[in-house]
Design brief:
It is a single chain. The chain has 389 residues and is α/β, with parallel strands linked by helices. Helix content is 48%, strand content 15%. Strands 4-3-2-1-5-6-7 form a seven-stranded parallel β-sheet, with helices on both faces. It has a four-stranded mixed β-sheet with strand order 9-8-10-11, with helices on one face. Helix 6 packs parallel to helix 11, helix 6 packs antiparallel against helix 15 and helix 11 runs parallel beside helix 14. The longest helix has 22 residues. The model has no long low-confidence stretch (mean pLDDT 96). It binds NADPH dihydro-nicotinamide-adenine-dinucleotide phosphate. The site of NADPH dihydro-nicotinamide-adenine-dinucleotide phosphate (NDP) has 27 residues, from helix 1, helix 6 and helix 10. NADPH dihydro-nicotinamide-adenine-dinucleotide phosphate binds next to helix 1, helix 6 and helix 10.
Amino acid sequence: MKRISVFGATGSVGQNTLDLIRRDRQKYHLVSLTGGQNLELLVRDALEFSPECVVTADEAMYHELKDCLQGSGIEVLAGRSGLIDAADRSAELAMSAIVGAAGLEPGLRAMQAGAHLALANKESMVAAGALMKKTALEKNVRLLPVDSEHSAVFQALRGEELSTVERVILTASGGAFRDWTLKEIATATPEQAATHPNWEMGKRITIDSASLFNKSLEVIEAKELFDLKPSQIEVLIHPQSMIHAIVGFCDGALMAHLGPPDMRHAIGFALNFPKRQNLPVKRLDLTEIGHFDFSEPDLDKYPALRLAFQVVELGGLSGALYNAAKEIALDAFICREIAFLDMAQIVERVLERNFSMSNKEVDQFSLENVLMMDQMGRIHAREEVAKLL
Ligand code: NDP
């Protein structure tokens, strides 16, 4: 049996992961299941999958969770220490599906404990790509991309030399505001931003898809995962969300990865790696689809993308800063403190304020430095939000 832990089990990726595990139950032994505040779901899944331990990231919910699982024999933990304890347990594979920078430490610890990491939490690679790669190398474990675009690139690269890659094209649906004007977007509400035309995902990533902050994080993630230069990464708006990424090789060949917008493909690929296995995803009927559309993203409409390429050029710890500032700006937009377009402005100002500090050398890429930069980004972003109130 494969020993597996699922971090962020109560979220969209976590639930899709458990769906696949449920269909192949005899193959897996659940080590740790973690969630946040959705105790109802966490308890339901814990009772169904009987993991060795269950963690709520919210310490205040510890007693309630413990009461709910009384007599089940499942160990109950809470807070950051609980997440670390869960990550330190021996597992063959860990699904990193916590949202935000909070997913960084559990993912790192799981790799340090010897688990291959199925990586949905893109923020880990954005904030600490060098550290993640160094840890994977030292511990001889794999980073298996779960973001559909990066899984697509990873699959297109199987059996290929990285040195023969000319370019990588990441596709973006364009999110909720693809057909809106800049003037309309300026007054968009969180509810409008949280509606995705093609994918069903968590609220935060859905809003990030509307601003293209999600694609921006993916640009940085792609640079880290596949050691790309900024000039090798392109983004195209592809409204159908059927082609997830395209890899261009030095002989002019383009290898595209196609599939329905269903995360269970990328998750299933990571769970079963290096083998392929039947997955319960819809098979594409190309005659039904008929055609695919592509266009260049408008950088005035999606300033987050322009900033991401600056971060890719800057390197160092600028990714940690970018992500932290983005998370605070997103919180402020969700709470209606700032307007939709203010998010990118806040991130830009935070980057400008810390330009020299963020550009640290790779050997300074300790977890402490990353977390320090993350904190700095949050403090400065809150100050920028306050100026707009
Ligand atoms: P969700 O918001 O649906 O779920 C997030 C999970 O993290 C939940 O289990 C939540 O708990 C938990 N969580 C929230 N805050 C914390 C915290 N501070 N500490 C520990 N756990 C916490 O997110 P998604 O599933 O949409 O996304 C997860 C990750 O995967 C993100 O990094 C996202 O960018 C990435 N991703 C997601 C895709 C998708 O299709 N959804 C596609 C590709 C990548 P609770 O809900 O119980 O509070």
